[in-house]
Amino acid sequence: MSAGRSKPSEEQWLRHQALIHRLYIVEEKPLRHIVDELRGLGFIVTPSQLEYKVKKWNFKRNISKETWVEIDHCIRKRKREGKDSEVILCGKRLKLETVEKETDRYRDRSIFAQFKSEPNGSLMITTNTQVSVSTPPSFSVEIEWPSTLPWFRFPQSEMKIMLKRHLGITRGAQKIQREALIPVLFHQGMTGPMNTVQFGASKLAAVIGAWMPESYPQESLRRVHSFVNGSQQDFLLEAVSMLAYMLSNNLFELSHEVPNNRNEDEWRKIMTILKTSGLFEIRINLKTLNSHTINGFMENLYYAAISRMCYTEGTADDTENMALLQWLLAVGQTPTLPHQKIFWYSSGPIGRPAGLELVNRLLEAGANANTWIFGGITVLCLTIIQRNMSNSMVYQIAKLLLEHGASDMLDVSLHAAIRRRVMDPALIEIIIHHGGNLLTGLDNTCEFLWGWEPREESDYTGGDESKWEVADILIYSHTALSVAALAGLLQTQYVLDLLTSRNPSKSITDFVTADVLISAVISEEFDTICLL
After folding, report:
1. Mapped to the 3 state alphabet, what secondary structure does 269-307 carry?
2. Could you say which of 76, 295, 337, 484 would form a disulfide bridge with 495 (CB–CB 3.0 to 4.6 Å)?
3. How far is CA 321 from its chain centroid?
């Protein structure tokens, strides 16, 4: 190599590894031809450098005599069992005529060979781990996919380069049980280990090819080869790539409202692969890569983690989900407050310390405090109407939301705070401080809030509910005082005091409208009527 020529970096090799595999193994291009193609892409290497690298990567396209003998024994044994066979080398399916020619060439035809026992009791090839023999697929799964698919840009992305950089440096060094993790990658619905030898490379490749696009023919075979015959690093890299595709395309059902054993098993396997791969050690903004696959992977993982906080409970689960969400935010995931109603119920995550911490982290990261729940209610309103949630917890959440810009429907939130059975003056005052208006009148179309009260959370008696239903019919416009008059004497006195202290030039009669008096009558509380 000339003195002026720089040595290719490992990252350059990694970026072109998939292309080199296709050219060298699948297309069987000469080394010189591959060097020319790489040069056209701006990657300058010598034939000797390329030869060294393909050997280091264990890319083989020749089979030794000893291995052909073993392949022949394996094929004949399978034939006696009524099975057809095909030979796969380094993720490439060998032509039938090549297999027949080479096995016939090296077959032992001596009289003694007839009395020899099988050299290998199993159907595995022991002399070359890059070779496998399996049943050919019953139908072709090789489809010509459009080259513009976003997925085809993922293997060339910097994310894959960074992942390879972390493999083996962090948690990738620990030993993993492939057989236990592979089922989730093939989406077979299994909860136990998967015997890859029993399934065979061709069948596994057919499973992948049925739902995952191939950038070139037999790419699925190469993936299977990495799973079964490759190093742990190869396995983890392919596993993360496949999970990125599967998660970005919603091939997992991880956000079920009713968790089941299969979902739990899939989630555990997914998290094991992602943790062990070193993915969570990456600390750059992945959104800057402008990859639809990466963006979809991050977003669906984000919502799955939040959904799990809604439907699973426990310190370990909360800690794991929180760590996942923190990592996603650190690498560029857009923070959004949860849209699930159950998240904001006292029986959901918000009723646990982890929920409050999560809301705080999301708001600090820039989540919109004016988030609306599906159906037309803000998270602030929904939090306030949780009757079984302590005043302290409601106040802490409301304070966080208000301090981070919650401003939609503040008057409705104010009315909800007044209506709480155990009134919290601090909650009312902080809403007023951030813009809630005691004098604003809301017609019944704005008082839909009452219909959102979770029945299982309500501690109202039947009579209490009925008076609000009557008020919805008879009251034209609700103010803070009319809501207080319905709620009780304590609330009425408190709101009156607030009104008079903030409006010293007005008398009590200026605030007591017909709707306020009607509310007092509906409440059937004599002391409230007398006060007004």
Report:
1. HHHHHHHHHCHHHCCCCHHHHCCHHHHHHHHHHHHHHHH
2. 484
3. 11
Rounded to 5°, the CA angle 153-155-158 comes to 90
Rounded distance, CA 23 to CA 34, Å?
7
Q: Model pTM?
A: 0.81
- Contact predicate 492/423, CB 8 Å: no
Evaluate whether 377 touches 452 at the Cβ level (below 8 Å).
Answer: yes
Hey, how many other C-beta atoms are within 10 angstroms of the C-beta on 397? 22
SS3 426: helix
**176: nearest Cα among 226, 232, 224, 228:** 232
Would you list the domain boundaries of the chain?
Answer: 10-56, 65-126, 156-333+351-366, 375-532
Q: Give the position of tokens 């409705």.
A: 412
How far is Cα 276 from Cα 393, in angstroms, rounded to an integer? 37
CA distance 124 to 134: 10
Render pLDDT for 70-119 as a digit per residue (tens, 0 to 9). Answer: 999 899 999 999 999 999 999 999 999 999 999 999 887 766 555 555 54
For domain 375-532, give the CATH number: 1.25.40
Q: How many residues does the chain have?
A: 532
